[in-house]
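Propose amino acids for all 288 sites.
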């Protein structure tokens, strides 16, 4: 697949707020349980654009009776969805700081002119792309089951499971859109370690590519009643020369809940289907 992608014509892009790390595999080890001290060893992304601002709020993050941070409403009766803090076409990472391999950069550049994104074809999207849909996501933690679920509103009616019971990743995973996620709490931050991804989605709205070697470490930190910082460390030696980290804020919209979303019905975004072309050759596989 990569040999074919190297031939893709380069375009132009500007994306914001990423830091790269020295070479080596950041996520080579899987925690046997939920370690309280594990932290990413790469530098944090730096804020360089107004779209990185934290949602204004004069209220602290809600907590349970035991003092634990909640990722939903302040009470079980309060609904709410998390949505992006910027226009849905805004970039989130600085492309000139991403440690691309040549084939990955060529594909990324191509996608700036030809947004043939699988998400526009009702496919699930993992990693940062999951949190960049206009209708948002909902977190549901069930302590009794030692599970946490992330439900998508827009798109293909999918949800992601995060195992919170201290298990490790199984061997010989079948690649999937969301991969296999294990999570634990570090203070007020939910940490999620994921592997087993397929290559059929974009890492973000601007088209960052990846391979099945991808492994991610995501950190969700609720900073106030309305703000949550999302941070993802990307470790993919197939597409990048070093691990790197990017982040952004998402906002809590209270008193909203999941609703029926029919993907593709009355879809007028033809540029997401054909890019710069007038049509798409359906006899060949569309590069995701």
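Proposal:
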């Amino acid at each position: 697949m990569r040999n074919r992608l190297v031939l893709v014509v380069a375009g132009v892009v500007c994306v914001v707020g990423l830091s790269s790390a020295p070479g080596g595999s950041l996520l080579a080890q899987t925690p046997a349980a939920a370690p309280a001290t594990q932290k990413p060893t790469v530098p944090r992304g730096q804020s360089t654009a107004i779209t990185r601002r934290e949602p204004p709020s004069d209220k602290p993050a809600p907590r349970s009776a035991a003092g634990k941070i909640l990722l939903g409403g302040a009470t079980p009766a309060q609904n709410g969805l998390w949505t992006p803090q910027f226009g849905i076409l805004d970039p989130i990472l600085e492309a000139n700081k991403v440690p691309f391999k040549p084939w990955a950069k060529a594909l990324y550049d191509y996608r700036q002119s030809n947004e043939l994104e699988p998400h526009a074809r009702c496919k699930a999207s993992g990693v940062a792309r999951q949190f960049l849909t206009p209708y948002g996501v909902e977190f549901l933690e069930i302590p009794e089951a030692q599970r946490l679920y992330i439900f998508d509103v827009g798109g293909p009616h999918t949800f992601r499971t995060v195992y919170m019971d201290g298990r490790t990743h199984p061997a010989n995973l079948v690649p999937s859109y969301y991969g296999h996620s294990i999570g634990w709490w570090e203070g007020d931050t939910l940490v999620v370690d994921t592997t087993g991804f397929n290559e059929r989605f974009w890492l973000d709205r601007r088209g960052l590519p990846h391979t099945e070697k991808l492994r991610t470490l995501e950190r969700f930190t609720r900073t106030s009643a309305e703000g949550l910082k999302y941070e993802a460390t990307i470790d993919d030696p197939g597409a990048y020369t070093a691990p790197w980290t990017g982040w952004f804020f998402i906002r809590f919209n209270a008193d909203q809940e999941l609703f029926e979303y029919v993907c593709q019905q009355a879809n007028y975004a033809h540029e997401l289907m054909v890019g710069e072309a007038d049509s798409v050759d359906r006899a060949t596989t569309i590069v995701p």
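The first strand starts at residue 18 and ends at 20. The CA atoms of residues 163 and 182 lie 5 Å apart.
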